[in-house]
Amino acid sequence: MSEQQLREEMVRYARSMFERGYSSGGAGNISLKLPDGTILATPTNSSFGDLVADELSKVTMDGEQISGQKASKEVLMHLAMYRQRPQCGGIVHLHSPWLTALSCLPGIDPENALPPITPYYVMRVGKLPVVPYIRPGSPLIAEHVEKLAAEHNAILLANHGPIISGKTLREAVFNAEELEETAKLYFMLKPFGMNTLTQENVDELNATFNMK
Ligand SMILES: O=C(CO)COP(=O)(O)O
Ligand SMILES: [Zn+2]
Fold this sequence. Notes:
Largest sheet: 8 strands, mixed
Family: Belongs to the aldolase class II family. AraD/FucA subfamily.
Shape: globular
Bound molecules: 1,3-dihydroxyacetonephosphate, zinc ion
Function: Catalyzes the decarboxylation of 3-oxo-tetronate 4-phosphate to dihydroxyacetone phosphate (DHAP) and CO(2).
Order of helices and strands: HEEEEHEHHEHEEHH
Keywords: Carbohydrate metabolism, Lyase, Metal-binding, Zinc
Low-confidence stretches: none
Number of helices: 7
Number of strands: 8
Enzyme class: lyase
Cofactor: Zn(2+)
Strand order of the largest sheet: 4-3-2-1-5-8-7-6
Mean pLDDT: 97
């Protein structure tokens, strides 16, 4: 895809997520890797609802601004994910309601906030580790993400929201949708308890599908 097509794709996915309530106000940010290895990111304080393709921020892998409006304050967190996952082509960070609720829940397992309740959650994400609360925009978030990203394509920031990657932006959005739905199911089921997949089920899915 050309740079122009990728810019338009970012605008389109952002708008679609905005319209479905995945991000409201100026919350969240998105990035993708351009063919020349630089990163296209949403500008800071922009809304997913009305991004402009020509105004998107372009930064180097060192975080240096090349063009467009000033990049998201979380761009270092995105860069940490790209560094650790060479296969990664797109990233979304959301304040989507069910995952953000999960990020505030007492007693969640910091190594995995969501049990394996459905095959598509296992196939697309598998495990969701949690980074302790750190103020938005702090470079410390990037340090935590850097340590987890080689092993995990999605990470939950406590009392904040998720960061989710994919081989392309389209995959990152699909992974985000699956993860948000899984968090919603988790809350629906929590009062009743739930059957989870067995380790054998999980191993079979990982051996059969390669979606991460
Ligand atoms: O979600 C956000 C911070 O965590 C939004 O920040 P930006 O507007 O700088 O992208
Ligand atoms: Zn945020």
